[in-house]
Amino acid sequence: MTTSTAPVQHSDEHYLSMDLLRFTTAGSVDDGKSTLIGRLLYDSKAIFDDALENLERVTQQRGEEHLNLSLLTDGLRAEREQGITIDVAYRYFATPKRKFIIADTPGHIQYTRNMVTGASTANLAIILIDARKGVIEQTCRHSFIASLLRIPHVVVAVNKMDLVDFSEQRFNEIVAQYSEFASRLDIPDIKFIPISALHGDNVVDKSAKMPWYQGGSLLYTLETVYIGSDLNHVDPRFPIQTVIRPHSDEHHDFRGFAGRVAGGVFKPGDEIVSLPSGFPAKIKSIHGPDGELAEAFAPMSVAITLDREIDSSRGDCFGKPNNHPIATKDIEAMVCWFSEKPLQPNGKYIIRHTTREAKCMVKAVRYKVNINTLHKLEDDLTINMNDIGRIQVRVAVPLMVDPYKRNRTTGSFILVDEFTNATVGAGMILWPDGSESAATVDSYVEMGGL
To answer: What domains are there in the chain, each with its CATH number?
Structure first.
C-alpha cells in the first residue's frame, strides 16, 4: 500500500501557519479511542508502508481476527501488553482540506493529568461512548474537564454501534442522556455521531448500515468544523518573549519586541500600553519571518517596533489603553495536580505564566473536586496527583492575566517545584480576586446526583 499524505514525524512548528485542527480523544477504558484514531489514519491513507507492515505482523502474531489499528497509537510495549493507553500519544496526519494533530489521552482516573496535558491546546474533543454502556461516570468526568479547559467543540462519538445492531433508538437514548448532563456545562458546540471504529462506519466514509443518520462522517466533521472564532481576536494581548537588538550597520537602531500574539489584532499606528509599567507608545512597524506586516493576530509570532523608547522586556505584555489584561499579584484558579507529592498549603513554587516566571505561594485551598461525581469536597483539602481543586495564589510580582474563559493563553499557568524544576500543576485562572466566573465554575462543579 502506497501513501502520499503528511508524514507523522513533523514538529508542531511545521503546522503553525497552516489550517490546523488540534483535537483530543477521551473515553473510558476499552471504548475504542486508539482504534478510532488508527481507523482515521488507516482510512485516510496516512500510514507509511513500513508501519502498516509492522501492524499486520503484530496483529498476526497476536492471533487477532481484525487488523489491530489501536497499535498505531499504543506505541509502548507496556501499553500493548496491557491493552490500554497510558501516556499521551501525539499523531499528525493530513487530508487535502486540513492538517491535524491528535492527542490520544488515557481514560483511567489516575491519568487525569495526562488528559489535561493533551487537551490544554485542543480546538476539539472527541468523547467516545460505548453504545452498550451509555453515559457513565468517566464520560461525565471527561466532559467536565473539556468544559473546564474551555474546549469549544465536542464531538460525542457513540462507538460500537455494530454491537447494538446499529439501533437508531439506542443512539437517540444516549444523545438524550448526554444532552441532559451537558446542559449544565459550558460547551458551546456539541455534535453526535454514531460510529463503529472497528469496521469504519461513519469514521471516514458514511455508513450504509445507518441510513437513519443524516449527518456527516467523523472525518468530514473534523475537516469542516469552523475554528476561526475560537481564538480571542477582540482583546489585544502580546506577551513579550525577547527584545531584538541586531547591533548591525543595516539595522543600527532596530529595537523589536518579539513574541506570539495571544489575542486581538495589532496594526502599525495602534496605541499600546506596556504592562505592568503602564508606559504608552504607538506601534511603528510589525515584522514577520518574510518582512513587514500590515497586521498581526493570534497565534502569529512577530516582532513589534514602537515610536519611542520604553522600558519593556521579557515577561511584560502589550495591550491597548482601553483594553488590557489586569496586573495583579493575587489570583484564584482551578488547578490540576501533576506531582506525586501533594500540593502544600502555604507552599512556595515557581509560577510560569505566558513569558513571565516568578515565585509564588499557595495561600489557600478552597475545595477539591470529586472527579467522579463532580461534587465539591470542602472537608478534604489535600490535593494529590490527578486531583483538581480551586486554590488562591499570591505571586511575588504582578502577572498580566485574564480569566481563562476569556483567553486560554493569558488565563493559564503552570506551577514548578523550585528545587526539582518539575512541573507539578497546571492552573486555569477564574479571576484575579475570584469575584467573577468563579460562581459559574462552582455551579457546575456542584452537580449532585450524577
So the answer is: 12-224 (3.40.50.300), 238-319 (2.40.30.10), 326-445 (2.40.30.10)
